[in-house]
Amino acid sequence: MSLQQKVYLITPIAQNRHFMSRIIIALLLFISSTAVAQKPSYKEQHRPQYHFSPPSKWMNDPNGMVFYKGEYHLFYQYYPDSTVWGPMHWGHAVSKDMLHWQHLPIALYPDSLGLIFSGSVVVDKNNTSGLKKGAEQPLVALYTYHDLKKEKAGKEMDFQYQGMAYSLDKGRNWTKYAGNPVIKNNGVKDFRDPKVIWHEASKHWVMVLAVADRIDFYRSENLKEWSFSSSFGKDEGSHGGVWECPDLVEMTVEGTNNKKWVLIVSIGNGGPNGGSATQYFTGDFDGRNFVNSNSKETMHWLDHGPDNYAGVTWSNTGNQKLFLGWMSNWNYAQVVPTRSWRSAMTIPRTLYLKNAAGGYRLYSKPVRNLETLRQQQHTLSVTKPTLTNGLNELILSFDLSRAAATDFGISFTNEENELLKVGFNKEQNQFYIDRSKAGDNSFSKLFTGSAVAPRLLSSNIVKLHVFIDHSSIEVFGDDGSVVLTSLFFPKQPLKSVQLFNDKEGLSLQQAVLYQLKSTW
Ligand code: FRU
User: What are the structural domain ranges in the chain?
Assistant: First the structure.
């Protein structure tokens, strides 16, 4: 209804003052309710306070992550009409520090070619696409179109193909490329999630595409025309589910000048603690072929917890490799007990490649910017709980050689006696998160109680770096060599924090807790 129409409707009743005041109240209520709809409070139960979550409704994978002119762009799989998955759009937000986000209008809407599934964005610095018009370098998005009608018709399997869109104004407005699709499908049901990188050695764009149970590599000179190079992975790594959302990252092995390529691949099912998870391969890449440095059977997990999926790295960040994942699991993502919105992203993490425990391993560390959220500092104890605001960073280290305790860690509780535990078990040599008593878990049988991750290193000092928000915990064990990310849904935030041990004699080296501030 236009403003003119609204004014016209009110005028005839204006003689009746009683009616008039009711209408004014109704109007005020209407205006305030639309204001609320536009600007979410971020105070809802379970709403993360320093993680990215959409203003409202459904979100899954991070997409198109690119850094350009001081802004980190985050696009994401978004269904603006419901809190469950539906016709996909690309939602959009920008941030200067990956922590404080400004929501921007939806960047890509479904069109006659289909829904807009996951993909990536690159900065076309050399204008290889020829799309540049003004001062800004083109930002070019490559994404998957999913033709829902064709899928429903069930006759042909070629309903996913790759499309392109571009922005000439720092990501504010997007134009779909007239020549779409840029890559057609020859009949493979799962054919999606293009991640594009610039391969400096061969001076080509390379696209990494998830194709059912493998990764296909394509190359291009101009981002518009693509030719197939090779396939990888049909009989390598984990195949508990469909392969999705790949990434290919060239990394320097810490402490050396050696470079290696890391191929990140999410799998829809069969993760180490159930459901969807993200594995990685380390090897060499010559611009066309990826060769795995490990045996075909080797499986490495970027995160062992149940709730880190479809994560990729930001484009255009130089040697820094910055990663963000969708903090949920397809096993239960659509039924978790949040109301106005569903899902959040992990905290941003820096990836490192190290030669450790007999092979190349991907380490994850929380980005340094998170330190700017620190407020009061406390020292944790075994005897007395520390009361906090429920938004915490914890840094702990224990000396195994001098400790009698074999099972120890941190417990988080509230007045409802809900309990979340994060710990290390010496006999089993593993880190764990136990969320079995941490709140509502009635919504899905697949929302399992505990998640474990084998320790990688063998030093006497066990380290834990932990981030807890209202409904999530992220554990970086031993400097990020082992990671666990997990959701939980307590009635109230878990504000009481205490150390625990099974036997007296916990040889603590450090036990610091910081209260963090909200970024919303
Ligand atoms: C991964 C995924 C992608 C796909 C998108 C659809 O979570 O299944 O493979 O592009 O979600 O929303």
Answer: 39-366, 374-516
